[in-house]
Amino acid sequence: MLFNPLYMKSVNRVTLLGHIVADLELKSTKTGKPVVSFAIATNNEWFDAEGELKKSADFHRVVAWDHLADLCSKFLQKGSPIYLEGRLTNRSYEGKDSLTHYITEVVATHVTLLQIGESKKNVEPKTLEPTETHESAPNKEKELVAA
To answer: In angstroms, rounded to a whole number, what is the distance separating the alpha carbons of residues 71 and 123?
Structure first.
């Protein structure tokens, strides 16, 4: 069989490790589906041409749907260290200024809270992961439960 790019599989996977930078915002759609949005920061470090250490941060918009949204709003807060997996998506909306605004965000499918224990030495992960799929929002999202 010859290579046919129309039948080529694709990959849309995002993996992030960072800290939540603001309070989470839990809302419901018109049909009652919970959706939570939040932002996380990831840090970058590199050495410039003179050998000096440079640092910067990137900020990522994240959304979680259904049961994962409920779990995130219950267990996560500003400053929480998390590991997450999801997919990158783009959407647009018309703002109050009558202009079309475009947003790129990560739709979370797996979230692990990396909570530091009282000893400050032990990391106690709490994993929130998918169990089954169903129809929701504009795309198929995963129904998620706590592990």
So the answer is: 19
Residue 127: CATH number of its domain: 2.40.50.140
DSSP 46-97: EE-TTS-EEEEEEEEEEEEEHHHHHHHHHH--TT-EEEEEEEEEEEEEE-TT
Q: Of the candidates 20, 17, 77, which has an alpha carbon nearest to the alpha carbon of residue 43?
A: 17
Residue 4 lies in a domain: no
Contact 143, 130 (CB under 8 A): yes
Number of domains in the chain: 1
For 63-112, the pLDDT digits (tens) are 999 999 999 999 999 999 999 999 999 999 999 999 999 999 999 999 99
pLDDT tens string 118-146:
544 444 555 655 544 333 444 433 333 33
